Each structure stands twice: as C-alpha cells, then as structure tokens.
Amino acid sequence: MDPYDDKSRYPEPEPSPDPGGAPEPHPAPGPHPRTGIAGLSRPYQAVAAAGLAVIGVLACVHLGMVFLYIAPANTITKQHGDAVNAWVLPEFEQNWKLFAPNPLQQNVSIQVRAEVDRPGGGATTTDWIDLSAQDGAAIHGNPLPSHVDQNELRRAWDFFTGSHNNDNRPVGERGQLSESYLHRLVMLRLNGHHPSGQVTRVQLRSATSTLPAPPWSDEKINTQPYYRVLPWWTVTASDLPGGVRNGSMEVAG
What we know:
The chain is α+β, with helices and mostly antiparallel strands and 253 residues long. The chain has helices at residues 42-70, 75-88, 131-139, 147-162, 172-191; strands spanning 106-117, 123-125, 129-130, 198-210, 226-229, 233-234. The chain contains 5 helices and 6 strands, in the order ααβββαααβββ. Helix 1 packs across helix 2, helix 3 (131-139) packs antiparallel against helix 4 and helix 4 packs antiparallel against helix 5. The chain is elongated, with a radius of gyration of 37 Å. Residues 246-253 have low confidence and may be disordered.
C-alpha cells in the first residue's frame, strides 16, 4: 500500500478562490457614533447649551465693558461710569502705557526709612528699605502673582505724585487723601520688619533709573538713578491701621 494514498494523513489542499469571481460581500457599515454635545443625552445637551450661552453672554458683556472703559467719554460712561469701573477695576485695568506715545522706559523703586526711639533711650535711623524690591521678589517666578504685589505700592506712589507739585505739597483734597493712603501703606510694610523700638518718624524716597539700551543699539543712556526725597513725617494715630498696633509700632506720644 502506497503511504501517499492515505488521504487522512495527507489531506488535499483547499482550492484557492477564483480571482476572476465576484468579491465576497462586506457587511454594511453601521451608524457613526455621535461625539461632543451630540453624544450627550438630551438633558445634558440642554445643560451644555445653557452653559455655552452664559459664557458667550459674559464674554460679550466683558468686551463691552472694557471697550467703554478705554473709549473716550460718552453718554453711556457718563450715566453708568461707576458700573463700568466696578467691572473693570482692579483686575482688568487697561491703559496705553505699553504702547505709543510713551512706553514705560524707567524703573521706579520706592524706598523707606524710619526713625526709631530705643527702649533704653536714644534714637536710631534704619537703613533704606526697598519696598519695590520686595514686591518684585514676590512676583518673580510666580505664575499667578498677587495683584497687590504687582500694583498696590506702584499705584499709591502714582496717586501721590499725581496730586502733589514739585515741592511735594498736596494739590487739593486728593493730595491729602494720597498722603494718608501712602502713610498707612508704608506703616503696614514697616510692620513686617519689626523694628526694635517706637517708630516716631518716617521718610520716603523714589529712585528712578532709565532702562539701558538693548545690546544691538549703540545709543548711550545714563542709567544712574535720581532720587525724589520726601520730607520726614511724624507718625500719628491716623497712620496706623489695626494690623500694626503692636508693641514695636506704637505711636509717638
């Protein structure tokens, strides 16, 4: 018996499909799954649509408020100026200082020193404390810096200089208000240094230096700071917010 005749051991290969024949039918594709809002149930679709509508309305209101804030005075701002300012300030404040006609080209540093009466007798004067440098250190490397660190001291100084003449004398009621605000702010900052003794007088100054020219420019710029020194002022009860009423920051008698 020929072993190659045993078909159980050596089955015949199946015939290959006829290349000229009709292709096998493929199953009909089903409906594509819905994505996004369309893939949600109807209640959730209604909630999502309402949320998008609210966001759209808020975006339109915000753009309108900012436009009215930076636009010239008009009938709307005269009637609703308080509402516009309440919406924009302080977080969304806008100004033109970044652009023409005069971009910021100077660094302004606010510094303070204090005259302190020692508990054992005698008085001493502290070194100049750079308050602006403290704010800069708090901002540097912080992806979400505090609005207080960015603007409180700067705006207080701008308020003061804008309402005083070159002799540091107040101009109108805003001048007196700016002095009071700046004094209280400075006393809060001094409170963090805990001077040993009783603070009797405080003096402020600003150091303004022009930014150097870029490396590719051959322009010669004087970057030496110049100072605006304010007179000494005596600390009174009105200069002390509640947060600085402690043993080291008492009011002079």
